[in-house]
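Section 3.1: Structural characterization of target chains.
Under the original work plan, the team committed to producing a structural model for every single-chain target entering the pipeline before any wet-lab resources were allocated. The record below documents one such target. The sequence was received from the expression subgroup and is listed exactly as submitted; it comprises 259 residues.
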Amino acid sequence: MNRRFTATSLILVLLVLLISSCGGKKAAEESEVKPTETVKAAESETNTNEDADVKETSENVSDNKDAADKKTKKTADEGYVKDGIYTNDYFGLTVQMPKEWEVQGQDAMQDVMQTGKDIIANGDDDKQAALDEAEQKILNFFLTSKYPMNEQDINPSVISNAEKVSPLQVRNGKQYLEASQAMLKTTELPYEFDEIKTVNLGGKDFHMMTATLKGNGITLNQRYYSTLTDGYAVNFISTYFDDASKAETDKVIQSVKFE
């Protein structure tokens, strides 16, 4: 991948990195050949942490079951935008869209996703197939940007989606973001990352990762937010370039509310 980038192309790539992050991490772990000593050490560590892991997994499963019991008559879907407000009844989520910003429909988001997959796969049929498979687990919530897509290199935006995950593989938003970070590091883009933090969005705890990328005279900043709920990783990505655009994207993120 060429190091030259635009904000739009990065948005395309990031959508795909999120959908492929967990699968990519799992595949990397499975393909690694470990010496006998390493295997024994890993088994010892697993036994030491087994009780804590089982407890945390049990708590997540219990929380998911309680939430699922309340939603037995509902099916997870992409939600909708009406009168400038994004609503997802299944996840109990609402987000205020900026009045003057562009809001992409599902068809446009699908086109964005396909372009992103083409960039990542780069003609590799096996990688393309893996991305196609991962996409089946994704619900695209919304993509809103200050300007129409492809019209401005400097284009603040906020993206949201959800990916179906296994609680046995991913126990919290931090693990999900760590996998996303690992995928970003496999590209040729010179990302710099801050420490993953815990934040509260709309009454729900999220993990947040900040990434910075410089090139072509542009400093691009992105914040990734992720939390696990009802068997899904619910994600937001804000993209901004300076204090003014950060304030704009922060306003969208701060409008997130959960029932």
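The chain has a mean pLDDT of 76.
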